[in-house]
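for ur thesis appendix - DUF1885 family protein. copy paste whatever u need, i formatted it the way the template wanted (i think)
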Amino acid sequence: MAEHAYIKLIPGSTLEVVQLDDIKELFHYYKTITEKTGVQLDWNYSENAFPYEIIDYKADADYIHLKATEDRYHSIFLGVGKEQVKDSEGLAALQHYIELILPELSTYGDKGKANEFSKFLAKKLKGELHLFNKRVMQYNLKK
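the 3d part is after this line
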């Protein structure tokens, strides 16, 4: 059975609406910073930190497919969506989110990387992270 985690963009997040291109851009930034860490450590850290290639995947919805380039990993899917929620005043509002999906064939390595990527994305977007184990982490400084 597939597992799901969500990064919800709440009031105060850096973006109100997220697109797949925004996620790709953040992953390219992630790869850049891990390359710089690898240079400092004199080790090829980038390939170990991001052992996937980014593939656009289209089924009934748009997704990004992170296909593994290493043996210990298989794949992770990322998609974007929106849902109706009630705001603090009780009015209906539209909330955008990023969904991370681990298919049945995913490995423990994929789950670890998905947790790492979700925390990175939630921190950069200042969002609300709903982890695979149903716990919630806030990366948005509340006033």
